[in-house]
Design a protein that fits this description.
Radius of gyration: 16 Å
Number of helices: 3
Helix content: 25-40%
CATH superfamily: Peptide deformylase
Shape: globular
Oligomer: single chain
C-alpha cells in the first residue's frame, strides 16, 4: 500500500511532469494506486497524492467490494470539452474528513494515454466528470480548497489547521 500524502505536503502543490516511459514499472505503480485508493475508500487518486510528481491518476466511480468494474487509469490527461456547471460537495483523500461545495463542469470529455501509451478519449458526467476534474487539478498543483470562497474556507479553517499541525509533527519526527 502506498502512503497517501496529506495537506500541506508540498508535493500536492507542484505541477507534475509528463509520463514518457510506458513499461511494467508504470503498470505496477498504477495497480498500487488502485489498491491504495480502494483501501482508502476513494473514487480517485492522483500520483502526487502518493508522492510521485507524474501526470497519472486513477478513478473508479462504480467500484464495489466485488470487483474492479469501471477502473480507468489516465496518463498525461487533458480535458478537451466541458458542458454546464453545477455545485456539489467534494472531499479529498489528502484532506480526510473535510468536505465543501465546489463548482465543476457537469460533463467533460478527457483525452489521455492508457498504461500502454495509447491515446484515448472518455466522456463522463456528474461524479465521473467531477473525479476527472478533481484529479487533474492535483496534476496541476491545485487542491479542491483552492476553489473555495472565503466564507467556505472559514468554515473548514480549524480542520485545515489541524492538518498543518499534523504535517509539522510528521516532519519533525522524520528529521529526528
Amino acid at each position: 500500500m502506498l502512503e497517501i500524502r496529506k495537506y500541506p505536503d508540498p508535493v500536492l502543490m507542484q505541477e507534475c511532469e509528463p509520463v514518457t516511459e510506458f513499461d511494467n514499472r508504470l503498470r505496477h505503480f498504477v495497480d498500487e494506486m488502485f489498491e491504495t485508493m480502494y483501501d482508502a475508500k476513494g473514487v480517485g487518486l492522483a500520483a502526487p497524492q502518493v508522492g510521485v510528481s507524474k501526470r497519472i491518476f486513477v478513478v473508479n466511480c462504480s467500484w464495489d467490494e466485488d470487483g474492479a468494474d469501471g477502473e480507468i487509469a489516465l496518463i498525461n490527461p487533458e480535458i478537451i470539452e466541458t458542458e454546464e456547471h453545477y455545485i456539489a460537495q467534494e472531499g479529498c483523500l489528502s484532506f480526510p474528513g473535510i468536505y465543501a461545495d465546489v463548482e465543476r463542469a457537469l460533463k467533460v470529455k478527457i483525452k489521455f494515454q492508457d498504461v500502454h501509451g495509447e491515446w484515448q478519449e472518455r466522456s463522463g458526467d456528474e461524479l465521473l466528470a467531477r473525479a476527472f476534474q478533481h484529479e487533474l487539478d492535483h496534476l496541476d498543483g491545485k487542491v479542491f480548497i483552492d476553489y473555495l470562497r472565503p466564507e467556505q474556507l472559514a468554515e473548514i479553517a480549524k480542520d485545515v489547521e489541524q492538518l498543518k499541525r499534523e504535517f509539522k509533527r510528521k516532519m519533525r519526527k522524520q528529521r529526528a
